[in-house]
Inverse folding.
């Protein structure tokens, strides 16, 4: 499955927005980069669906523009004016060429979900490969109001419980894409999160 980060090299703060091409061309998160629609059109003529990992501004700011341009199905856990399909833990969502399982992963955000497939995981902000705080296994920040380190730890454990052995691609909301032993990266992130230490010095 070909996956394109359509917000790569953005000049403004944004999440990674991933365009998964295939059976069901799917955008995972819309990002906050002006011009994202043009980037999408460089890769595909249409978008079948947008799946939101959560609704923080850096993940949904350009959703209006994407919906106006492509009229996709909008899949989300929490209510949103553009949502056309509600999802819950354990549901199936086709992303590109993969049938993924929705895993409810709160902690960084109350409505956070991750998408776990047989080969790939779209982990949003709950767990990432590298993000400036840690290399090879980091996790979403939990120092803002309404966030919870304990809930995030539970969420990472839930991902590990439901992660197939064959997953070799991790597409996270921030940092780089990782190809390799995804389970080891996530286990490293869990170990760091369990120390309950601040992720950033000012946290």
């Amino acid at each position: 499955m070909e996956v394109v980060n359509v917000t790569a090299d953005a000049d403004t703060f944004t999440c990674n927005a991933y365009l998964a091409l295939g059976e069901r061309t799917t955008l995972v998160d819309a990002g906050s980069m002006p011009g994202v629609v043009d980037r999408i059109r460089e890769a595909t003529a249409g978008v079948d669906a947008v799946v939101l990992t959560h609704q923080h501004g850096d993940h949904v700011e350009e959703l209006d523009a994407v919906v106006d341009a492509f009229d996709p199905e909008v899949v989300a856990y929490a209510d949103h004016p553009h949502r056309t399909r509600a999802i819950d833990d354990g549901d199936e969502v086709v992303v590109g060429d993969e049938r993924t399982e929705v895993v409810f992963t709160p902690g960084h955000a109350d409505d956070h979900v991750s998408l776990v497939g047989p080969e790939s995981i779209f982990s949003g902000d709950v767990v990432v490969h590298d993000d400036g705080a840690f290399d090879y296994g980091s996790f979403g920040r939990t120092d803002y109001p309404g966030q919870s380190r304990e809930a995030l730890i539970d969420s990472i454990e839930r991902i590990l419980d439901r992660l197939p052995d064959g997953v070799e691609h991790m597409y996270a909301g921030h940092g780089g894409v990782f190809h390799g032993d995804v389970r080891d990266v996530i286990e490293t992130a869990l170990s760091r999160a369990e120390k309950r230490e601040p992720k950033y010095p000012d946290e």
Summary: The first strand starts at residue 2 and ends at 5. Residues 149-162 form the longest helix (14 residues). The radius of gyration is 16 Å. The chain has a mean pLDDT of 96.
